[in-house]
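Module 6 notes. Inverse folding takes a fixed backbone as the condition and produces residue identities as the prediction. Think of it as a translation problem where the source language is geometry and the target language is the twenty amino acids. Below is one complete input and output pair. Work through it position by position during the lab.
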């Protein structure tokens, strides 16, 4: 093992391929990479100061999750979603996320709701600042904070894969979104949690997760 590869394994206590994978995964999921942006394995390896082997392994995992595309020439890119693919991802969110929210409702204690209100305040700040990636990241944090209380890890894993595949496209959505829409939908979610209104919670979640993506369908 080379000195560079060995050092990369030690950094953060993670193997090099895992560190590259987690960094790239977060970057894609949070909309830091636009759809259709191209990269190379050599460029990724240089950025993270590792050999091409851990870079290739990280990319291979993200390709399997549908977050990246890898050509025969080694060119890596984020997929540009078709209208049909956007509709499919929106439908998956509409199926899974209301169910996760419903399962979380009995465990939605006051501290959790307060935390979600605080995250929603951050979303408002991101909107004012024009911080697209901060908006996407905070929006996902709002939903994940609730869904973790569902204690349904397999279902949450599925929806996180959907978020990963739609991350770059969500960056485009931010540019078209009426700036207060997401925050308003979140306030309806919080209100339903406060009152224990399961049908209202399901409806608010469904509206929040589908309205945005379907705005992108031309």
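Target side of the pair, the amino acids:
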């Amino acid at each position: 093992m080379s000195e560079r590869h060995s050092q990369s394994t030690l950094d953060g206590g993670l193997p090099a391929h895992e560190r590259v994978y987690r960094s790239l995964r977060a970057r894609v999921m949070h909309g830091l990479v636009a759809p259709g942006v191209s990269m190379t394995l050599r460029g990724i390896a240089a950025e993270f100061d590792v050999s091409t082997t851990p870079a290739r392994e990280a990319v291979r995992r993200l390709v399997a999750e549908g977050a990246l595309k890898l050509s025969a020439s080694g060119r890596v890119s984020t997929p540009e979603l078709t209208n049909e693919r956007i509709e499919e991802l929106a439908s998956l969110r509409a199926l899974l996320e209301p169910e996760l929210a419903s399962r979380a409702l009995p465990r939605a204690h006051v501290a959790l709701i307060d935390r979600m209100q605080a995250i929603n305040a951050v979303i408002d700040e991101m909107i004012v600042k024009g911080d697209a990636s901060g908006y996407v990241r905070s929006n996902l944090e709002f939903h994940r904070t609730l869904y973790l209380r569902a204690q349904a890890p397999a279902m949450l894993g599925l929806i996180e894969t959907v978020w990963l595949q739609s991350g770059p496209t969500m960056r485009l959505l931010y540019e078209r979104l009426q700036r207060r829409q997401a925050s308003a939908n979140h306030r309806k979610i919080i209100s339903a949690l406060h009152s224990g209104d399961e049908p209202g919670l399901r409806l608010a979640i469904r509206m929040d997760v589908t309205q945005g993506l379907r705005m992108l369908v031309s």
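Reference fact for the lab report: The beta strands are 38-40, 69-70, 75-77.
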